[in-house]
Amino acid sequence: MTRTYNYNLVIEDNGFVFDDEDSLIANANFTLRNGKYFAVVTLYTSNIQLVLSDTSLTNLKKLVLRKVFFAL
């Protein structure tokens, strides 16, 4: 399983987002439709849901981390 790091947060391939203390703070569900990746992100700390999209899964994971970081 690979992990993507950014903003002292980590997102795993399964979509779980952890902070630097290994606390689960969000979950992202990824899907591919018509050549575009979408993520529905649920933040557990504030009960907010975000819908994000990008043409690259790697870029989408980085975008998820950025949005989660600024939503905290």
Description of the structure:
The chain has 72 residues and is an alpha+beta fold. The chain contains one helix and six strands, in the order ββββββα. Strand 1 and strand 2 (9-12) form a beta hairpin. The mean pLDDT is 88.
Topology:
Elements: E1 3-6, E2 9-12, E3 16-18, E4 24-33, E5 36-43, E6 48-54, H1 57-71
Antiparallel strand pairs: 1-2, 2-3, 3-4, 4-5, 5-6
Which descriptors would you attach to this protein?
72 residues, alpha+beta, six-stranded antiparallel sheet
How many strand units? Answer: 6
Report the uncertain regions. none
What is the H-and-E element order?
EEEEEEH
Averaged pLDDT: 88
Percentage of residues assigned to helices: 10-25%
Task: Name the quaternary structure.
Answer: single chain
Shape: globular
Largest sheet: 6 strands, antiparallel
Strand arrangement within the widest β-sheet reads 1-2-3-4-5-6
Portion of residues in beta strands equals over 45%
Instruction: State the end-to-end CA separation.
Output: 26 Å
* Helix/strand class: alpha+beta
Radius of gyration: 11 Å
The helix tally amounts to 1
